[in-house]
Amino acid sequence: MKIYSAAQIYEAINTTIEKNQITSNDLMEFAGTQVFNWFHTRMQGAQVPIHIYCGIGNNGGLGLVLGRQLLHHGYNVHVYVVNFSDKRTKDFLINYDRIKEFKIWPRLLSSGEEFPKMAKEDIIVDAIFGIGLNRETSDWVKDLIKYINASEAYTVSLDVPSGLYPNHAPEDKEAVIESNYTLTGQAPKLSFFLPETGVYMQQWEAIDVGLDQEYLQKTDTEVQLIDKFEVLPLYIPREKYAHKGTYGHSLIVGGSYGKMGAVTLASSACLRVGTGLITAYIPECGYAILQTSLPEAMVICDEREKHIAKIQYDIEPKAIGMGVGMGTDAATVKALKAFLKTNKNRLIVDADALNIFATNKTMLKSVPKGSILTPHPKELERLIGEWTDDFDKLEKAKAFAKKYDVILIIKGAHTITIYDNHLYINNTGNPGMATAGSGDVLTGMLTGLVSQEYDPIKAAIFGVYLHGKAGDLALSGLGYQALTASDIVAHIGAAYLDLFKEPEKPSAEAKK
Ligand SMILES: NC(=O)C1=CN([C@@H]2O[C@H](COP(=O)(O)OP(=O)(O)OC[C@H]3O[C@@H](n4cnc5c(N)ncnc54)[C@H](O)[C@@H]3O)[C@@H](O)[C@H]2O)[C@@H](O)CC1
Ligand SMILES: [K+]
């Protein structure tokens, strides 16, 4: 799913108006009607008090259309205008007049006013600010937002939770609506998926607000949300006459005394994702561990007992997963440096290999183009330096990926893959996956996919999706706390099968 920038949404609005020869208010009426239908379907006339807080821009205008339509259908509605500026938009004013047709004079809220009384059981509609928020709000508006949050009433935000900017984090973390449900126009916004700003919403849903389909389809976006629909075309089917050589030889280089589990997990994930052959290159101490825990894997041992000191082998891998459990011993750093001088293979770089690169930045220049780096936030900071907020982090990460011509996977709740100035936001996975070894599993999966001739960027997008999906499928019967990295590996097969599952048909009951 495409994620449009605020500028693109405004352009889509203008294109729609021009092409269809309608007014901006016609479009607002359509959008407001769609939002009304959403409420009406769920509320079926219930008389729960609905408090609509409208700003003075078009987000507020949308709130007024919704209010008028709810009143028209007999709902119990209270409308307030958050009067933070006298620069009311044209369409706000049209709808401000129209709601008065219902003998309703919205209460104007301004500085020093007492805020409306509300009960916990009421419903709040937040139409204060949309994507037009461009500066810090006045203190009294911040107080109102905090007051709304403190009410604990179910809050539905229109377009975005008010207080969120399209391209930077809020100055005051408490002055943003904590929305239970965000009904967003046409497509979700980038801020919904970043750790600092995604916390303001529990659930979102995109509503078709009638923007021009041709514009939406033709317009390339920098950001995409990745779900099943996006990854299905990436899948490479297995051939009937294939043999294990067809699907590549993967090499996992890593491990040190006390950290052999990381290599075992990465290697087994690599196998499960479909690599033809797997070899683990490890220090001597891991030999019995690997051969016992994973009989399918071949093992090459380093001459050293407890850590890798020389990366040398006589196989021809298609892809190399580098760094899991490897440690940062001086001898290992030296070995990695020497290896990079001759290596032409694409790498999937993780964990300690990333930490080694972070303190030896010149080594990054020897990483083959199209390699994949998979840092978690702390490792990322070591690579790209500190950032001011999540949006700044993405800019810095994009610049880094471009400079070294690599694919950067920022691991987190919504893992983001960055390549060639594009961001691919993953939509699978769950908090149970924040567990030891989960990253090692991803490294193994990515290595296995690149070995099977997946183009590296496709391997990254597909692998991250599949990893998250395996984690989601593993949840059943376990829950977040009990989920382990091995459970993710065990569900890779189910994640593949899920790709081809038909969506569930509505039951006879639901059809009535
Ligand atoms: N016009 C239409 O037909 C449609 C409108 N839509 C709605 O329109 C919204 C965008 O509307 P606007 O561009 O009017 O923006 P908003 O309603 O988000 O912003 C409010 C207005 O206040 C001003 N402002 C921003 N920050 C302020 C601050 N801190 N203090 C005081 N004033 C401030 C802005 O200049 C803007 O005019 C979308 O988010 C969406 O909800 C969409 O639903 C699509 C259809
Ligand atoms: K809003």
Automatic annotation (TrEMBL):
InterPro entries, sorted: Carbohydrate_kinase_pred_CS, CARKD, Nnr, Ribokinase-like, YjeF_N_dom, YjeF_N_dom_sf
PROSITE patterns (UniProt xref): YJEF_C_2 (PS01050), YJEF_C_3 (PS51383), YJEF_N (PS51385)
Role description: Catalyzes the epimerization of the S- and R-forms of NAD(P)HX, a damaged form of NAD(P)H that is a result of enzymatic or heat-dependent hydration. This is a prerequisite for the S-specific NAD(P)H-hydrate dehydratase to allow the repair of both epimers of NAD(P)HX.
Membership in a protein family: Belongs to the NnrE/AIBP family. Belongs to the NnrD/CARKD family.
UniProtKB keywords: ATP-binding, Isomerase, Lyase, Metal-binding, Multifunctional enzyme, NAD, NADP, Nucleotide-binding, Potassium
Domain YjeF N-terminal: from-to ranges: 9-217
Identification of the protein by name: Bifunctional NAD(P)H-hydrate repair enzyme
EC number: 4.2.1.136, 5.1.99.6
Coiled coil: none
YjeF C-terminal domain sequence ranges: 227-499
Binding-site list for K(+): 59, 126, 162
Subunit text: Homotetramer.
Cofactor note: Binds 1 potassium ion per subunit.
HAMAP family documented for this protein: NADHX_dehydratase, NADHX_epimerase
Gene Ontology molecular function: ADP-dependent NAD(P)H-hydrate dehydratase activity; ATP binding; metal ion binding; NAD(P)HX epimerase activity
Sites where the protein binds AMP: 411-415, 439
Family matches, as SUPFAM superfamilies: Ribokinase-like (SSF53613), YjeF N-terminal domain-like (SSF64153)
The organism of origin for this protein: Kordia algicida OT-1
GO BP term, example: metabolite repair
Residues given in the record as (6S)-NADPHX binding sites: 58-62, 130-136, 159, 262, 325, 376, 440
Cofactor(s) the protein requires to work: Mg(2+); K(+)
PANTHER family, per database record: ATP-DEPENDENT (S)-NAD(P)H-HYDRATE DEHYDRATASE, ATP-DEPENDENT (S)-NAD(P)H-HYDRATE DEHYDRATASE FAMILY MEMBER
Lineage, highest ranks first: Bacteria, Pseudomonadati, Bacteroidota, Flavobacteriia, Flavobacteriales
Keyword Ligase found: no
Record's catalysed reaction(s): (6S)-NADHX + ADP = AMP + phosphate + NADH + H(+); (6R)-NADPHX = (6S)-NADPHX; (6S)-NADPHX + ADP = AMP + phosphate + NADPH + H(+); (6R)-NADHX = (6S)-NADHX
